[in-house]
């Protein structure tokens, strides 16, 4: 299985258009080694020919333009992207669908909660019905059902499992303060030919025993790298929200709860990568002390264009 990181940043990317925080400013003026990052999305493929998109970022146009593996190959109009799976209905993960409107109907795999948000509060799917149209494949993660195994048409060598995880529905959603099973999923993808297993959770509010079990011994983890500290946005003067308010477990944790680094230490996974990194996060500095701390623990930071072969 091949994994391409199309976008490794959180909402806004880095540098963010209107942000002059220490990291965004340094990314612009080059005073620290901070790579530009677009908004969070990856593509996976069993053979390097046909790809499934996991999340569709508003930066998708740029992401596909710079990625030869995803260019049209056959005939006048074509794309190696055959299907899209969304982890949630957040703007940074879903609005890229609008930029796929010139193609055939989108083969879209989402939970009922995400479908509802994307046909009401942010009615992207309804709008797309007037362009390419959308074929909804329902991922039955809802109510009592917290796990759904499925396959993506044309990708039978990959086994997908969607799992409900702790998180937040988008700010515009009626579920924002009333979490529902299916607002946020993580995806486990297993290559049936090699047995290799990817676990992808770009938004993850907590790692409890259940999540730890899913992450245990994975060949590759790509998980929530949004914030280094719980109060990062507040400390930087960028807002009033804490990591927990936004549904993200920070790397360093807090006195109340352990962080993502501790959780990753306990997984025994072969490769551990952070993705969906907010532009306020000091791990963006390739030579910063926080990055060194991650390296000491065997944790990598995903970057745009990164290729992972499992
Ligand atoms: C998040 O990850 O918390 C959201 O994408 C924030 C946003 O919509 O900008
Ligand atoms: Mn986000
Ligand atoms: Zn910033």
Keywords, separated by commas or semicolons:
seven-stranded mixed beta sheet; 10 helices; binds manganese (II) ion; binds zinc ion; globular; alpha/beta; single chain; binds D-malate
What low-confidence regions span 5 or more consecutive residues with pLDDT below 50? none
- Kindly name the structural category: alpha/beta
Helix/strand order, N-terminal first: EHEEHEHEHHEEEEEHEHHHEHEE
The count of DSSP E runs of length 2 or more, i.e. the number of strands, is: 14
Measured by DSSP, the beta-strand proportion falls in 15-25%
Whole-Å distance between the termini? Answer: 5 Å
What's the main sheet like?
A: 7 strands, mixed
- Which ions, cofactors or small ligands are bound in this entry? D-malate, manganese (II) ion, zinc ion
Question: What is the percent of helical residues?
Answer: 10-25%
Kindly report the average pLDDT value. 97
* Rg result: 18 Å
The tally of helices reads 10
Main sheet: strand order = 6-5-4-3-2-1-14
Shape: globular
Overview of this structure, please?
The protein is α/β, with parallel strands linked by helices. Helix content is 19%, strand content 22%. It has ten helices and 14 strands. It has a seven-stranded mixed sheet. Bound molecules: D-malate, manganese (II) ion and zinc ion (ZN). Manganese (II) ion binds at residues 10-11, 90, 92, 276. Residues 10-11, 90, 92, 276 line the site of manganese (II) ion.
């Amino acid at each position: 299985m091949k994994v391409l990181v199309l976008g490794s940043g959180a909402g806004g990317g880095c540098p963010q258009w209107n942000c002059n925080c220490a990291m965004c400013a340094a990314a612009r003026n080059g005073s620290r080694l901070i790579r530009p990052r677009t908004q969070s999305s990856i593509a996976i493929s069993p053979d390097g020919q046909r790809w499934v998109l996991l999340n569709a970022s508003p930066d998708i146009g740029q992401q596909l333009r710079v990625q030869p593996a995803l260019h049209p190959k056959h005939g006048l109009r074509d794309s190696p992207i055959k299907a899209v799976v969304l982890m949630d209905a957040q703007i940074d993960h879903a609005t890229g669908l609008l930029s796929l409107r010139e193609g055939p109907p989108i083969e879209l795999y989402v939970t009922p909660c995400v479908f509802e948000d994307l046909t009401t509060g942010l009615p992207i799917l309804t709008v797309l019905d007037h362009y390419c149209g959308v074929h909804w494949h329902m991922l039955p993660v809802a109510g009592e059902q917290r796990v759904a195994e499925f396959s993506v048409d044309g990708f039978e060598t990959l086994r997908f499992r969607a799992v409900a995880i702790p998180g937040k529905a988008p700010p515009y959603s009626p579920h924002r303060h009333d979490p529902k099973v299916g607002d946020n999923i993580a995806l486990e993808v297993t290559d049936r030919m090699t047995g290799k297993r990817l676990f992808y959770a770009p938004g993850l509010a907590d790692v409890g025993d259940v999540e730890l079990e899913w992450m245990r011994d994975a060949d590759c983890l790509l998980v929530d790298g949004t914030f280094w500290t719980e109060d990062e946005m507040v400390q930087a003067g960028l807002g009033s929200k804490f990591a927990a308010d936004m549904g993200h477990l920070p790397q360093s944790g807090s006195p109340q709860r352990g962080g993502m680094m501790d959780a990753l230490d306990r997984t025994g996974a072969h490769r551990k990568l952070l993705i969906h990194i907010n532009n306020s996060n000091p791990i963006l500095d390739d030579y910063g002390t926080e990055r060194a701390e991650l390296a000491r623990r065997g944790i990598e930071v995903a970057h745009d264009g990164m290729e992972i072969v499992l």
